[in-house]
């Protein structure tokens, strides 16, 4: 009975090596797409997350075999694994960035979380689940990424910041131009210019106008921004929007 109990908490060096190597391979497959896309967490990061997760679950399952027969010791192989799932959130948070009105890095953070789960599955010997998860993750990142880009090209929201002269017709002209070309204004904000150097130089006062506009296609939008930049009363313009 004692030998049977001990065997549950023991693993051969061969099996241990296979599991760690498989964790590296599967984690690397998911990380390839992130690496090709130039993301902050790429090929090596995903390998390390998968390898580390697999190592932790192997440690949790087999690292305390010496205490398996102790009457007052209760071994729980899921305890360390649970900490990996929660702890990976800190690493994923480091890949999420806010750019203008958009957020980037969510997919990379999610892929790191999935890779951690794959590593845990490999470490626990749940090879089929790990292989299926890797296949689906690779399909999601490579194939669905192209579909997502195709859909995003058809409708986007950009944030445009204008510096306009007060009491000019610039704002009315800009709004009218958007409406004439079928572009929907998602949000419009008007702010006073805190650093109004033109007023100090004897010029007219200016205001900051932030417009979030939804449009289809890219060529028409580029042409319109050039036209609006030369409108009367427009002192400056900045397109800070990443596609939402």
From TrEMBL:
Main location: membrane
Lineage: Bacteria, Bacillati, Bacillota, Bacilli, Bacillales
Stretches assigned to the MgtC/SapB/SrpB/YhiD N-terminal domain: 20-149
A single GO cellular-component term on record: plasma membrane
Entry protein name: Putative Mg2+ transporter-C (MgtC) family protein
InterPro entries the UniProt entry points to: MgtC/SapB/SrpB/YhiD_fam, MgtC_SapB_SrpB_YhiD_N
Membrane topology note: Multi-pass membrane protein
Subcellular location(s) of the protein: Cell membrane
Organism: Paenibacillus algorifonticola
Residue stretches spanning the membrane: 12-33, 45-68, 80-97, 126-147
Assigned keywords, A-Z: Cell membrane, Membrane, Transmembrane, Transmembrane helix
Pfam families: MgtC (PF02308)
Family stated for the protein in its record: Belongs to the MgtC/SapB family.
